[in-house]
């Protein structure tokens, strides 16, 4: 069997909302899809089997974390990230740029790239578009991201333009450094902040480089959902219909529903995993804080519509107890549930798009969020 | 189907070492057996499915922790500890006494029982033999332990005698308070420190109360392995052959092998779970510290003789990486492995006893511990 080319096939559309299928060297991903974040080669608090059981088809790895520990060269010696973390399926890796700006110390941004010191031990590093691409190759990433600068928010038109243009130059260098292999892809990242002309310009320049997919960067950085949706309203139109579109770092289930309605296919966010570790549950009936004493005698499943291990085997009262006692099983079970819930929302969205009833689906899901824990 | 009586059947013996089968209302337990410690209604860092996958047939719950949170009455309302923690199999609960003495504040020991303040919020509690037995009934414990006083070490003969005699009076009150149900049992706890006459006296008094099994308490409290084995050399003889014998709070795999050789059937200890959270691995080739840099490029499985999730899916290098990054998956995987290793040692012991080759088995297992990580 030959490895399939990296491809994206549209299976259906309802308004701007798309149902598709990404085919890769490591398997297929029905879209819209949510990618669980596996920061340092592990989706926090989850075995790989548990991640699979949520319905996840693709996970994300963080170049910044992995380049520091265990290092890209070591991951390569261990046979790549898939083998290391027991995830033979598709893996998307970010470029490292975003986390350097948020986590690293003594950052210096220049035309050639970014120099910084590790937040762990102060070791100096340089990350260029070429090195970021090489690292992702060493990790054996299924989908490599270009190195970009995530423009700060708010930014003036001039600031956003300068930053966007740097990202385009880095996109070209990243693309040149990318080693093409069957079933592997590389995504360019659109920038341009909240300026339509810049988004249009950025998209056009990236499309010229013929990436296998396109990400929308520089959103979910403080602008709020309304502004994010406004930007999405126009900027997905600038991207080719026959390539996947990935909105980086987003978001709440409500954000996902709104972005899918605006033509986005892929998402990643730490929200469901981080929330799982801090007792916040995403459910069909809204968001619950499992530390709340209202749950201490609640013998119902967390979410009666969910078939995950947490919801089929345990009660809300038990989850409450585990978080009160700071038992690791609390974060473990709630991460399982939250990721399952995100996958269920995306699977439901896909089915609804194929049935041309996406608006009704969103209205139904959103309506249920108002019901609360005693529904 | 009627619930079977609580029973213990000897299946084989090799010297003093015994292979048996405990039958309970919640299932059967081949012995010798190691009970994973599920302190507050969860074996730390493990789902119940993961505990089952280690081969564990019985787990232990801590009365002290559960009486504070979520409380015995709440566990009862939630359908009992089995249902709450997704463990339909046998559960043994301790009496609470040992942890009150080690954890609680402002303890006061009197004839009627112990009064103390919770180590969590200072709330005052009283634990009597009757209340301890009632709590374990509310938890729906398969095997209830009598309330005893674990004599301090070292202790004079007089101190050990007085303490042992209090434990006997509490044994009688615990036995009177125990509600007999088919398939449920209650164990008395032998005390007497390192004094043979006291151990003999304690055992005889407990046997008069006709418990379903007998524990050996007051060991593994600082006396060292040699002294512990000396005490075991005589004190298992004081216990009836047709009842299970449980050595409380023990120990290392080497302790287990030596105690089985001296006629012990059951064990519990936090060691494999606690070690799993602190990067200490129990393996066929000895004990490793997974934080050691020697493992950073070690692509071998942790223990090539082990079929657990950790050993079949991941490398030593990955475990090392997880612990360096303080990722929860490190403790999760290593707890899975350590508990599996303990179960494997006990299963191997049982098979060896049935084959009358227990000494050779111990020599082989102990020999392999000397090999170290590079074997």
Automatic annotation (TrEMBL), chains A, B:
CC cofactor note: Binds 1 zinc ion per subunit.
A GO CC term assigned to this protein in UniProt: cytoplasm
Residue ranges occupied by any tRNA-guanine(15) transglycosylase-like domain in the UniProt entry: 16-369
Gene Ontology MF term list: metal ion binding; tRNA-guanosine(34) queuine transglycosylase activity
Record's keyword annotation contains Metal-binding: yes
Residue ranges, annotated region (RNA binding): 249-255, 273-277
Keyword terms of this UniProt record: Glycosyltransferase, Metal-binding, Queuosine biosynthesis, Transferase, tRNA processing, Zinc
Signal peptide: none
Positions of Zn(2+) binding: 306, 308, 311, 337
Catalytic activity: 7-aminomethyl-7-carbaguanine + guanosine(34) in tRNA = 7-aminomethyl-7-carbaguanosine(34) in tRNA + guanine
Cofactor: Zn(2+)
Biological processes annotated in GO: tRNA queuosine(34) biosynthetic process
Pathway, per record: tRNA modification; tRNA-queuosine biosynthesis
Its EC number(s): 2.4.2.29
One Pfam family hit: TGT
Binding-site positions, substrate: 94-98, 148, 191, 218
Annotated active site: 94, 268
Subunit structure: Homodimer. Within each dimer, one monomer is responsible for RNA recognition and catalysis, while the other monomer binds to the replacement base PreQ1.
Stated role: Catalyzes the base-exchange of a guanine (G) residue with the queuine precursor 7-aminomethyl-7-deazaguanine (PreQ1) at position 34 (anticodon wobble position) in tRNAs with GU(N) anticodons (tRNA-Asp, -Asn, -His and -Tyr). Catalysis occurs through a double-displacement mechanism. The nucleophile active site attacks the C1' of nucleotide 34 to detach the guanine base from the RNA, forming a covalent enzyme-RNA intermediate. The proton acceptor active site deprotonates the incoming PreQ1, allowing a nucleophilic attack on the C1' of the ribose to form the product.
Family under the similarity heading: Belongs to the queuine tRNA-ribosyltransferase family.
Family matches, as PANTHER family: QUEUINE TRNA-RIBOSYLTRANSFERASE
Name by which UniProt lists this protein: Queuine tRNA-ribosyltransferase
Organism: Acidocella aminolytica 101 = DSM 11237
Gene behind this protein: tgt
């Amino acid at each position: 069997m030959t490895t399939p080319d990296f491809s994206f096939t549209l299976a259906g559309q309802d308004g701007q909302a798309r149902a598709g299928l990404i085919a890769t060297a490591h398997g297929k991903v029905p879209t819209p899809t949510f990618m669980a974040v596996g920061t340092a080669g592990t989706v926090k608090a989850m075995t790989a089997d548990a991640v699979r059981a949520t319905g996840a088809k693709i996970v994300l790895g963080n170049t910044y974390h992995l380049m520091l520990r265990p290092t890209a060269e070591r991951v390569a010696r261990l046979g790549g990230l898939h083998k290391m973390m027991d995830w033979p399926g598709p893996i998307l890796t970010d470029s490292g740029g975003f986390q350097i700006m948020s986590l690293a110390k003594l950052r210096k941004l220049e035309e050639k790239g970014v120099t910084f010191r590790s937040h762990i031990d102060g070791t100096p590093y340089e990350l260029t578009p070429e090195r970021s691409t090489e690292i992702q190759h060493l990790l054996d990433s299924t989908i490599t991201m270009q190195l970009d600068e995530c423009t700060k928010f708010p930014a003036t038109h001039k600031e956003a333009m300068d930053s966007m243009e740097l990202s385009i130059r880095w996109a070209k260098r990243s693309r040149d450094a990318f080693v093409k292999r069957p079933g592997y892809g590389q995504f360019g990242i659109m920038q341009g902040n909240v300026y339509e002309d810049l988004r249009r310009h950025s998209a056009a320049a990236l499309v010229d480089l013929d990436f296998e997919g396109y990400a929308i960067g520089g959103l979910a950085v403080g602008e709020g959902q309304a502004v994010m949706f406004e930007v999405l309203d126009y900027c997905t139109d600038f991207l080719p219909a026959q390539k996947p579109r990935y909105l980086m770092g987003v978001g709440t289930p409500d954000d996902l529903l709104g972005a899918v309605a605006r033509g986005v296919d892929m998402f990643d966010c730490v929200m469901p995993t981080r929330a799982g570790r801090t007792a916040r549950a995403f459910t069909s009936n809204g968001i619950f804080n499992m530390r709340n004493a209202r749950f201490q005698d609640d013998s119902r499943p967390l979410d009666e519509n969910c078939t995950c291990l947490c919801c089929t085997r345990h009660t809300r009262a038990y989850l409450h107890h585990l978080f009160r006692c700071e038992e690791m099983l609390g974060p473990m079970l709630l991460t399982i549930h939250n990721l399952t819930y995100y996958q269920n929302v995306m699977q439901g969205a896909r089915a609804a798009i194929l049935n041309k009833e996406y608006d009704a689906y969103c209205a139904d899901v959103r309506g249920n969020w108002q019901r609360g824990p005693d529904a």
